[in-house]
């Protein structure tokens, strides 16, 4: 690790949020800051913020607590970075962010910080939470049922949230079998589209099919984003098994037939990989 200047006054600031804020302010200082940090804006930093959130989730899935500690720090730093840029532009500062989330959590938990009873099920508390969120959306003049569902969410996650919102006002299939039928219908339409329609219409039909699959996941109580991520991991493990077996046989996927690789894939499944 590169040596630091212990005489720097930043080390006189007690450890904690104040020092972190001071570090961020120094990085953005026009005269003494970091050239890279000074070039950034909200749009350029946003992808890093999303990436750090996924890295937090990855550490949790791996049950890697040391990694999680570091990733949470990276994610916290992203919030501080955005707040610093907002303060420079005169919009708000980090304390406004902290104050806002504190007030929001108090308002959304009247059974903890107010006079409402805590004798509620988790489902009832979730319903109450949605009522409070609806009030907040109304205060922001978001009157449409689907208003406020973030555009930047992963597509499967956003599909599920849109469907949940619509379901609250009764726009939903009453039975899971009907969702399965809808998936079959969309699959047939996609099969027909790929024969006769241009690429943009094929993409549209594919989107319809994926949206219906996300709807089925919701009806089954399955998080589609998590389920697909788990399948991605499973595919990666099994394909690594195939590659390893081929390597031991002195060949590669490129030098093998589909039948050979499929047999190894089946072996991986049987082995519980």
From TrEMBL:
Enzyme Commission (EC) number: 3.6.1.8
Entry-linked CDD domains: NTP-PPase_MazG_Cterm, NTP-PPase_MazG_Nterm
Pfam families found in the cross-reference section: MazG
All residue ranges annotated as the NTP pyrophosphohydrolase MazG-like domain in the record: 40-113, 180-238
Reaction(s) catalysed (UniProt annotation): ATP + H2O = AMP + diphosphate + H(+)
Keywords tagged on the record: Hydrolase
GO biological process, one term: dUTP catabolic process
Family, per entry: Belongs to the nucleoside triphosphate pyrophosphohydrolase family.
Name of the protein in its database record: Nucleoside triphosphate pyrophosphohydrolase
GN (gene name): mazG
């Amino acid at each position: 690790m590169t040596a630091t200047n212990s005489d720097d006054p930043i080390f006189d600031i007690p450890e904690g949020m104040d020092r972190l804020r001071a570090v961020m302010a120094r990085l953005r200082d026009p005269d003494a800051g970091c050239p890279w940090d000074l070039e950034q804006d909200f749009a350029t930093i946003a992808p890093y913020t999303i990436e750090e959130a996924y890295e937090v989730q990855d550490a949790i899935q791996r049950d890697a607590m040391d990694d999680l500690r570091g990733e949470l720090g990276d994610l916290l730093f992203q919030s501080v970075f955005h707040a610093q840029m907002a303060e420079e532009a005169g919009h708000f500062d980090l304390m406004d962010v902290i104050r806002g989330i504190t007030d929001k959590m108090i308002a959304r938990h009247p059974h903890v910080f107010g006079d409402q009873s805590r004798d509620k099920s988790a489902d009832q508390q979730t319903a109450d939470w949605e009522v409070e969120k609806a009030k907040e959306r109304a205060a922001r003049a978001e009157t449409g049922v689907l208003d406020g569902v973030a555009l930047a969410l992963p597509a499967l996650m956003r599909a599920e949230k849109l469907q949940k919102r619509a379901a609250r006002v009764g726009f939903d299939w009453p039975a899971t079998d009907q969702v399965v039928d809808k998936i079959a219908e969309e699959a047939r339409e996609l099969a027909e589209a790929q024969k006769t329609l241009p690429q943009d219409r094929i993409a549209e039909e594919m989107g319809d099919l994926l949206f219906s699959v996300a709807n089925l996941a919701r009806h089954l109580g399955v998080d589609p984003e998590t389920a697909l991520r788990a399948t991605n991991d499973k595919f990666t493990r099994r394909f690594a098994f195939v590659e390893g077996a081929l390597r031991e046989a002195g060949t590669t996927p490129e030098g093998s037939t589909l039948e050979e690789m499929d047999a190894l894939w089946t072996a991986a499944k049987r082995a519980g990989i």
